[in-house]
Design brief:
mainly alpha; TPR_rpt; Serine Threonine Protein Phosphatase 5, Tetratricopeptide repeat; about 65% helix; 2 domains; Ycf3; 11 helices; TPR repeat
Length: about 250
């Protein structure tokens, strides 16, 4: 349990701002009227052709369905197309609406997957400009924190991680990110408390248990650290078993 801090992976909160209640993804939402017999529904040119502002008015576009298009591209790792879909969703949404904010948050996630952290930062900042206290604000803040950290703006990263927890103290990913950044700054006791909060709120996976184990080890609580490591290994083993059963 002496891994270098730079070697630790950090679970980016992909899509945390999107409710789990979305219907099955489709690249052919009915409102857009794309004929799959005429075009390839995953052709990156289709969205441009169908949604060109000179041909389609905002009233004709169902923004949530367009967000689903972007999420569908995310599912198949077509992140460039996803950024385009989310940007169009933001542009067609009512100005400064919650739908526009959600689109900007997801655009930031897609840019993060492409490691375009400067553009991700811009997307999250635009989302927060629209509303810094909405249902998507905590997600925007915690994702912005990680993008800033990746971009080398580490002091700002912790500030936004703190802000995410203030907005939604029941958001486990925000507590995890806060713990991660505190740990990076050597504030181990505070980091451990943050990890414990995330776990209490339901975030129990191998990554956070390993982070907690490292914090415990640094505090000299070796027995508890070993217990956390064993729990993480058990979770990973169960996941591998489930994956093997699927095949």
């Amino acid at each position: 349990m002496t891994d270098d801090a730079d070697d630790r992976s950090h679970a980016f909160s992909e899509g945390q701002g999107v409710d789990e209640g979305y219907e099955e993804f489709t690249l052919d939402p009915t409102e857009l009227g794309v004929d799959p017999d005429q075009v390839d529904p995953v052709d990156s040119r289709v969205l441009t052709d169908v949604l060109d502002e000179h041909n389609v008015s905002a009233e004709q576009v169902d923004v949530p369905e367009l967000v689903d298009v972007g999420l569908s591209y995310m599912e198949i790792n077509r992140f460039e197309e996803a950024t385009a879909a989310f940007e169009r969703a933001a542009n067609f949404a009512e100005e400064d609406s919650i739908e526009a904010q959600e689109a900007w948050v997801n655009k930031g996630v897609a840019h993060g997957q492409l490691e375009e952290f400067d553009q991700a930062i811009g997307a999250y900042e635009e989302a927060l400009r629209i509303d810094d206290e909405s249902e998507h604000a905590a997600t925007a803040e915690t994702n912005l924190a990680y993008a800033l950290w990746e971009f080398g703006r580490t002091e700002e990263a912790l500030e936004h991680a703190e802000r995410a927890v203030e907005i939604d103290p029941r958001f486990p990913q925000a507590w995890y990110n806060r713990g991660f950044f505190l740990s990076e700054r050597g504030l181990t006791e505070d980091a451990l408390n943050a990890f414990d909060n995330a776990i209490r709120l339901g975030m129990r996976n191998a990554d956070i248990l390993e982070e907690k184990a490292q914090a415990l080890d640094e505090l000299g609580r070796e027995e508890e650290a070993q217990e956390a490591i064993e729990q993480a290994e058990e979770i990973r083993a169960d996941a591998e078993e489930e994956l093997a059963e699927e095949f």
